[in-house]
Each structure stands twice: as C-alpha cells, then as structure tokens.
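Known limitations

Files may contain more than one protein. Parsers should not assume a single record per file. Below, a two-record file is shown to illustrate correct handling: read the sequence, read the token line, then continue until end of file.
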Amino acid sequence: MAAATFSATLATAPRDVAVRASSARAVVLARASRRHHRASRGVVVVAPSSRSTASARPTAVAAAAPAGDALPPTAVFDTVVAAAEKKAAQDPATTLLLGFSAGALIGMGALLMSCVGGASPALAASNPGLCNFLKGAVGLPAGLTLVILTGAELFTGNVMTMTSGVLAGKVDAASLARNWTLSYVGNFVGSVALAFLAFWACTAAAPAAKAAVIGIATMKATLPFAVSFFKGVLCNWLVCLAVWGTMASTSTAGKILAIFWPITAFVALGFEHSIANMFLIPHGMLCGADVTIAQMMMNNIVPVTLGNVFAAAVFVAGLHWRAYSYGGNVAAAAARVVAAAPEPAAR
C-alpha cells in the first residue's frame, strides 16, 4: 500500500512542478508587463494574420516617446514614415516655397562658414585641424537648425524621408518624385538668390573673406566627378543621420545637439553637400572665381547630388527600413511582444 502511494506521488510530481513553474512564469511576466507599461506610454502591436508572405508587415503603431528624451530607433523610423505621408499630402506650392526657404537658410550657414572659418588664413596655416573644426562648427549646423525649426523642405533630407515612406508602403513613387523635384528646384532658387544678396551686401569685401570665397568655389568646381560623388555619399550619410536625430529627440535642445556633431563632422572632413554648393559656387563666381556654369554642374552639382541621393536612399532609409520595418523583422518583433504578454489564467 505504501509503495503504491509513493509511486503515485512520484508520478504526479513532474506535473505539480510544471504547474508551479508556469504560475511563477506568469507572475514574472505580469510584473514585467506592468513595469513596461509604466516605463512607456504604450505600444500596440498586432501580429500578422498570415505567414504566407515574408514581407507582410503587421499593423504596428509605436506610441509616443518613452520617459527619456529620445524615441527608440524603431519608433524614429515610424516617425520618418509619418513625415513622408505628410509631405506627400502637402500642396505643391507650399513644398516649392519651403524649398526656397531651405536653400536660403543652408546658404546662410554656408556664408557664415566661409566668412568665419574660411577667412582665417593664419589659423589655417598654423593649425589646419582646428581651422577645419571651426569651419564645421560655425555655419552649416546653424543653417540646418533653422531648416528643422522652421519646417523648411531640404532636398537632401527629403530623399531619406520620402524613400522611407515608399519602402514602408505608405507613399507612392509619384509623390516621391514630386517632392524631390519641387524641393530641389526650390533649394536651387533659394541658394542662388542668397548668393546674389550676399554679393550685393559685400559680405566678402574683406580680402581674406574674398580669397576664401573664391578658393572654395574654385576647389569645388574642379574636383573629379568620382571624387565629388563619393564625397557626396559620405556627406549626406551624416546629414541624414542629423535629420534622423532631430526626429528622435523630443526637445529643441536635443534637436540642436543632434544636428551639431554630424554637420560639424562633414564640413571638417571636406565632404560635399549639393544644396550648400548651390550657394558656395555661385557666390564665389560672383566674387571673381574663374569657374564656368558647366564646370559647376558637371564637376560638382550633378555628381554630388547623385552621391547625396545614394547615401540617403541606401545607407539611411534602406538600411533602417531593413533593420526595423522589413517583413520578417517586424513579425519577429511582434512575436516577442506577444510572447512577453502575461498568459491568461488557467480555467
């Protein structure tokens, strides 16, 4: 009799242990879930209804920022896509007008760069590294900050934004082409208009400033095509990461800081930004640089624009879409959230 009782106890022991383990797991998951909801402002994820299509994206909406000062990268990508949808719905005249504003504001930053760091020949001779840092820190970070804070339409950032929207399936190709064209034309007109205003205002009247403006334009317009292209790639990789950082930040100070380091880096390293060059080269030509329009376009503006587009579309939009939004990754993320949810109580 005792032996039979002992055998029955052994038989039921594994089941009891499993029940207790399951209960403990439910308690842990419930506590983790409560902590998660307190730490964030809510995330709603609906798992995909079918696994038949690898690229099928579940309905997933990341809510607002967590308790800190920045959104997590996955939520930033969703913010970029939402911005693309807004740009796609924007009136064309508004896009063109805001494009003009962006070109002029970037030109303001480029003018500041050339007239401060560029017009420091003694520093450039004695400490070129420090001079390059000065040119990077003073000028274009201010220009991009003004673009972001005013909502202007900058072509180089729009390439990243609109490409992300297309890859996510929220924006069509026609909307992308319209935004790119209008913002690019607006940027060009705004940049050239500012070049004339700066020339008429005699901003480069000082000999050192005039020499810097002419030297910058001459150097840029005589680069080999391939060099301009790759400098454009490296430049807009950093510029788009700066724009990405502004979308991640939930404060104005955070946005300014997100802009400062990438933009300072690209200028200090001598990379090429197509919109800034739409101001720098015409301004140098007006001040006396021996550069033709054909040289400006074929040696700089065209290859730099192509490089800027490649970096924004591939290294920023494409890379982050593949990492955070592309089918299998989103499905896996949804599965992890579902698995982390507390199990329903056993009946």
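...continuing to the second record:
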Amino acid sequence: MFVSMMRDIVHYEMVQVAGPTSHSLDDPATRHAYLTRFADQESRLYMRRFYRKYQLKTADEALTLLLRDVRKSPSKIATILRSVAPAETQARFDAYMRAALRGTPAAGLPDEDLASSIASTASTSST
C-alpha cells in the first residue's frame, strides 16, 4: 500500500513539476527503478536515524526513550511493554506502567481499571 501511494504521489509531483516529460513514469520499468531507489533512500535514512537514536543505550535506556516518544495511553504502553518483555513479572510490569503514565490523566486509574485496559490490549493483540 505504501509503495502504491508513493507511486501516485511521485507521479502527481512529476506531472506538476516536469509537465509532459513525466510520462517516463508511465513505463513500468522506469517507475519500478525510481520507486526502488526512493524506497532504498528512505529506508537508509530511517535506519540511520533509528541507529543514532538508540546506539550506546542500555536496554532500560532504550525502553525509556521509546516510552517517552509515544502518546501516553495505557493500551499503547502495555503493548510496548508486552512486546519488549513478554515474560516480565506482573509487579515489574505494573511499576513500568505506573512510571510511564505518571503525569497523565490515566495515572489516577484504579488498579482494576488499569488491569482491564491492559487485559483488553492483550486480547486484541493476540487476535
């Protein structure tokens, strides 16, 4: 889907900027080569940013950095924590959840509500 969307955007921009010479994108081989080059460049850029952001970080530092950059909702945080450490003890999991939700409206959730939002995340992510 992403590639087809990018193909449409590239085609539109080429027509707007280059006019009739953009017909070269109508050739499947040329379009494929262009999109392949574009995807490779974008992938390298993403990986470079990702590597710089997380290099030399311990596992806990990387997790803290990841949690800092997401919208603070119980379901998102629970999904990240379950993905990173699925076998973590419930006590440690709860402590991470509470720490990550500190300063948010969800920080005041009673334990039962927090547990139910976490359970709903687990049931939807397993389907």
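Parsers that stop after the first record will miss the second one. For reference, the second record is described as follows. The chain has a mean pLDDT of 81.
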